[in-house]
Amino acid sequence: MARLGLVCTASPRAAQSVLTAPGRVSVPAKPVGGSAAGLAPEVCAGLLGNTVLSVDIRTGYSGGLQVPGVQPACEKNHLGNSRPVASTAACKEFLQLPLPTATRPDRVCRVLPRAEERTAYQTHQEHPGDEVLPSQEVEHAMLGPPSDGFHMPAWRSNRLSPREEQELELDNSDVGLAEELWSQHPPWEGTLLGRIRTMMAMEQSLALETICRCLDEHSQLYLQNPEKQVSVFDSSVHKFLEFLGLDPKKSEEKAFLFRLYGLILRECASSERVEHHLACLLELSHQPSSQREGIALAVGLASARHLKEVWALLEHLGRTRFLRSVVTPEESQDEVLNASFLTAAILLTRALRREYGAQNYKFTQTPELIHCLLSMLQKEPNFLATLLRQKIILVIVGLSNLRPSLKPVVKSRVLQTCLRSVYSLPPPEALRSSLPPLEPAPDVMALYKKTERALDLLLQNFVSENPSMDEVCFLLQHMEHWLESEMTHEVKRAVQSIFLLLQHVVGSMKFGGEAMPSILGHQIGLLTLLWRDRDECTHYHAHQCVFLLLQLMAQQKGVSVDLSHWNKMKNFEAKASKDWEVKLSHTAKALEEGLTVAQHTQLVLTLLQSLCGQSQLRCDLASKLLQLIFSTPSIRTEQVAEILHSLFRELPSIQFKSIQQTMMKAVLDLGLQHTQEVVEVILSLCHPSERRLLSLWKALAAQYQLARKVITLLYMKLKLRPPMEHVRTSHQVQLISLLALGTIYELLYTQEYRETVRWAFAGILLGLLTQLHYLFELGFVEGISDYEEDILEARPLGPCRTCLEALKGLFWTTHYWEVFAHIKLLQGWELFEHVETYTEGVTLLARTMTQYNCEIKAVLGQAVIFLKSVEERDNVVAILIITEFLNSPDISQHTSRKTISSSLSLGLNHPSKWVRASSLSGLSSTLMHPKKVTLLRSQLMGLLEAFLQPNPKDLLGLMQILGDLLHRLGMQGVGALSLKVAQHLLLLFEDERAEVREGAIFLFGDVIHSSGHKCQQALKALAVQALVPLLFHLLDSSPRVVMRSKLTLLRCAIVQKWEFRKELFSKLAWGRGLGAENDIFIYMVESNFGSYHQFLMQAFTYLGSSQNNLKVAAMKFIGGMLQDYFTDLCFYLKKSDVKTLKNHLEALSQDTDSTCRRFYRRSLADIVELSYFVT
Length: 1175
Fold this sequence. Notes:
Blueprint: H1 12-17, H2 41-49, E1 74-76, E2 82-84, H3 115-126, H4 162-167, H5 173-182, H6 189-198, H7 201-224, H8 235-243, H9 254-267, H10 271-282, H11 289-303, H12 307-322, H13 335-354, H14 366-378, H15 388-400, H16 408-423, H17 428-431, H18 444-465, H19 469-483, H20 488-508, H21 519-528, H22 536-557, H23 564-571, H24 580-594, H25 597-609, H26 616-631, H27 640-650, H28 657-673, H29 675-685, H30 694-700, H31 704-718, H32 736-748, H33 754-759, H34 761-778, H35 799-812, H36 817-825, H37 838-851, H38 856-867, H39 872-885, H40 891-894, H41 897-906, H42 913-923, H43 932-947, H44 955-969, H45 977-988, H46 994-1009, H47 1016-1032, H48 1039-1056, H49 1061-1070, H50 1073-1086, H51 1092-1101, H52 1108-1124, H53 1126-1132, H54 1135-1146, H55 1154-1173
Antiparallel strand pairs: 1-2
Helix pairs in contact: 2-12, 3-5, 7-9, 7-10, 9-11, 13-15, 14-15, 14-16, 15-18, 16-18, 16-19, 18-20, 19-20, 19-21, 20-22, 21-25, 23-24, 24-26, 25-27, 26-28, 27-29, 28-29, 28-30, 31-32, 32-35, 34-35, 34-38, 34-39, 35-36, 36-48, 36-49, 37-39, 38-39, 39-42, 41-42, 43-44, 44-46, 45-46, 45-47, 46-48, ...
């Protein structure tokens, strides 16, 4: 089965329903009930929709449909040019129509638009039941193919003549023309019908088979030689015509045979016979245009009596064969094809809505017809020369009113295509210049206004079909792309369409129900962003759209609209820009009152997403409006998470620094409103080690009280420690305490939190100490001992390592870096890496804090609280700290002896042996028993006498006991004897035994650090005297002596209050090579102005040292002093000093080491020169 042709009918009603009079295509509809005397609209629609074509009564050309799988035949026109009968289609999936280019006037069908005939037609419209008289019948002229001699440019394919434009108007004129044509019948038809009715059923079947065979022979001969006029002689047909009393020569007229076939089918009484013979008819070739028209004529006649059978067969064929194939159209398409197709759709739509009671029919192929129309619309050039855009949109408006209603997917495609077709046109000022040369030139602006009005009607019609807020949001959703366009004229058109739509809805509709789509907040946000648009019309309409939407929602809720905020906004329109923030403030309040929580959330998310745009004006508007929203109580608790997640995603892409600063202020405002929720959400955004959250944390630190709340909440999260049996190793990341730990670690090194961390020092300290013990309990110790501080490579740390680094950072980043440095140089932080030495580490930390008076009062208060905790780890840490703090000379200023006694007594019955032992040790301290001070002092005097002997027994034991006594007695201990002890210890720095040197150097640091105010100045002088030996012993052969020398050198610097003592520690702890040695040398010398000559004299004494490394250190030091401080040495040295230096130097002249001899020769010249300037 290839093609179908024009449907002609036998009655006015049937003729009226054939909607292809100048048009060509319709769509099958499914009958609900009843039948008509003529071709009912659903049958006509079925014929046309299932590839039935019509005769174009304007041009006289009969077109056809391309059936999938069948190639079109070629015909010759009067110029001898070959062209396909059918080629380009208006729709890829539905139709493939022929592309005529011009029409010969002598082949045009005569149309009689007489007034009396129109009157007769209108009378019939008023009395549709009247019979059609045979006298009204006239012969239907056969139409020939058009000429192919003239081809029009592709861009003119859709340009219509004034007459064609008139015929496309949506009035009744086109239906009247079709009525006049199809209401006429041949004069012989009445007599013929009488004879057909007298035939028996078998005779009718035989006649139909004979005619069908004859028609088939006609078509076969035509296909073999299309240029030759063919005629077929069939004796059976001749006899049958004679039987009917007709001229046998009419058997050579195909049009007559098709009409006869249709009349016999109409008079058949058997449905089965009708179906059989109709199927045979449809099996004929469809390639000749006359064949298509004849088949359509016969089917139309048969449908007058056998509507159900005809419909069923056509629908089956259409759905199973034609509509399932996608036809590939050619590149061009002329105005005849588009105009015909469009007129057919207009007529179909009007007929269904007006004459046949559209409520009784379900027009199921509306989507396919709309698909065709949209395909035409998509192929329109990007300029306005005709009203074709308007006509297509208006036809779609009419089709959308038919049953069943359009599905959302169809409506979505309609909106996308129509909006793009109209909005993407050139801007108004360029519409005329975009036109190709046309005569006469069209009124482009008039065309555009009509097209724009048609689009507005489409939008309003969709809302009228489904009056609900959901439908409004559905339409606005398709406008979003154009609201975000970078083309000013596209945005302007979209906003204006929305404004007119909302005006229509608010003014003429009232929605039922309480549906409040959350997406509406997003759409309000997009419109709000246009308030700073450079186009005055755009930002005015954007204002109005937001107001209308809020008014619409208020009407739906049944409440009156509070216009106070909006009226204030409007009053600011004409004022200076300095009032812009006041206007935005009223906007924020109006949005808060008018939107639901979900809509408000979508609004905020939309504003956040716009922060990354290229327009600084739009970004500035969004950021300031967000800041105003965040600063008011409009943000609910349930909104915080989604808002912060969106902000976190957008922050890295914000291009303007001012916008980033504004958003940080907004985060601060949000944190003030919802501190706990904000902290919890930020914790969950990503792992703290990624450091992408620092900007948010810094924003919260801008307000000191809020920063304190943040640290407090983090401390509370740190203490959320589920029992070990409830935690799995593979789910470390799920522990909120680990996230809080990582965040605290990062904030310790954030400048904005320095003061807050110091305020919370005590709580953080005990929280970290107990957290580390908790992680030991869980077994999260992976990587704790593999960490290397001097490697800058950023690697993620394990939980234990993070906790330990946070503990170290707590001291390093505050004013108590000396505690960190002291423990670092004692290698005490390594004690925290193992659970077995954990308590030793806590004890050492507490003792060091006591020596440097580090937050004794605050930490002691926290320790007392932790001692009452139900967790054993808290009790262990607390008692170890309290016990060490009892040796502080200031402990009595912070707490009473009674309070300490009661706290320690609680620990005597504790299950932990550490708690019991430490409690007992604390109860025996000098604070609890002041009389012990006198006893310890008497014992100290005896020890000092033994220690100061030339060769004391068990020197190491004596130094250890002295150190312990000094720790217990503190400032009130040794007194004036400390000077003698320090002097004696200086002599032991050069002892041959490494362990003695180590003990003496370490004890020297304790002595000068724990001396009272009376001996402080004298001990400082001794500290200066110890600097050179300590400096040289940094190269000692014993590593332990080296570490003790570093610590004591630092303690001397702290006692003397060097300016660069923190930098000195950095070099002592992590410095390597000659650079570090040179820096330490500079720090020491520059911090002791006036002692240069003393340092030089001390250095020369080491030239005779038995340790070669000390001798080398002395040579380096002397060389540096003579080179860098020669002038100062000339000022301070005496002649006798220079002689002493020469004597020490002469000892190297005979040294076996070549390095020493070279140093001798190089330095001798300097010493000689120095002697010339010394007085």
